[in-house]
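Reviewer comment 2.1 asked that we show a complete input and output for one of the modelled complexes. We chose the S-adenosyl-L-homocysteine case, as it is the one discussed in the main text.
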Amino acid sequence: MLLTLTTTHQPATDLGYLLYKNPARVQSFALAFGQAHVFYPEVSVERCTAALLLDIDPIGLVRRNSGPSGEGFALEQYVNDRPYVASSFLSVAIAQVFGSALNGHSKDRPTLAETAIPLHAKLTALPCRGGEFLLRKLFEPLGYTLTVQSAPLDEHFPEWGQSRYLTVTFTATCRLSELLSHLYVLIPVLDDDKHYWVDDAEVEKLLRHGDTWLAAHPERELIVNRYLRHQRSLARQAFAQLQEEDNTDPDTTQAAHTVEEATIEAPLSLNQQRLGTVVSVLKQHNAQRVIDLGCGEGRLLQMLLSDPAFSALVGMDVSHRTLEIAQERLHLDRLPAKQRERITLFQGSLMYRDHRLDGYDAATIIEVLEHLDAPRLAAFERVLFEFARPSLVVLTTPNVEYNVKFSGLPAGKFRHRDHRFEWSRAEFRQWTNAIAQRFGYRVRLLPIGPEGADVGSPTQMGVFTRGQ
Ligand code: SAH
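Response of the prediction step:
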């Protein structure tokens, strides 16, 4: 599996500074699923090409239990196209081997990393479900000129038709980080096959790297749908492993609860990202019975309802009006009986101990905490972590440090008028650690959304887990 990156921006050898890879050397990296090699087949001041060659180890994959599942024919675990094609493995390799470039950082050429330069990428054996037509629909709106070569499945048997693997060149004038993030996200989308994410955090990264351009992409829905599907397959395959290691993680959500907040945050398109991430966290933990506290208009519930893995869903909110909107959004009146049985909404307050909160695998509290003032927060802590005590709690809240990045938000103001506070990363860490310690949970913190230098990401998430 080969990716080449070429620039004609002069001096072209600066590509080495952008990629943090010396053009004079061949370098190899051990990845969880094989080896990556970086070398430069072409180096001159006028034109420089870096190549990333992936050498996937299918046997190792199976051994590590992160390879293809046992579905399909007996040898499918060993005999499949994964070693040869551009798939999610390539995305993982891009993130690991060209991580700084992907994030737009260059110590030695910071200005160049921010500059649009002529770039040319070539992928051999790109599996395209949806063919050239879809390939173009995905990349052309992002400003690429493509050349696409298809090959016969077997030269000796033309009647077998064309292979579904394409060799594609992508040409654009853009920042290297943009090119890499487009490839990072869209390669797995095009492949649309079973995905064997080696590390679940990759899913979160996938969403994060799409963040700046996905919102405006005309095929946004297809892109998001395809990779949400991948997360489900990830979750299934990774589950056994996860139980062993409890190597849990990812990310987030929030829905644009009010127009005000939504408008401030809209350019980041955080909403889909948060929802997708929360769903992914729930699935990694195999949570089937989920209660969404402060469910608002039911956006998270809507997403969970469309996934049969969730057997019981409950939304609770203190606002009756909001629950009416949720009811409409979820079409509760029109759901078939079986679906209807899976979901319940009720009015309640996080301030009071309530037995209706008992017995769920997971509770989500998405962008709610900051609406509670200090005495209420103290009550809420006990209601949730001492009394209801689900084994998994997924909680998100704004990171106040990021507010300087919102152009529509005056300095010193919170994102929403009703917010009683917005915490810095340190404040959130302190609170989550104190909660975990006091109530016997473990907590993991994860950023959601694009990370700004020194200010972190717009949303912070805590994933609390409790021993059996
Ligand atoms: N989780 C939703 C809504 C977030 S807005 C989303 O991400 O879209 C915050 C919600 O918390 C509002 O719907 C508000 O009515 C609810 N809320 C505020 N205080 C509450 C309390 N004490 N108990 C339950 N819900 C509360």
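Residues 65-74, 234-260 have pLDDT under 50 and may be disordered. We note this here for comparison with the apo prediction described in Section 3.2.
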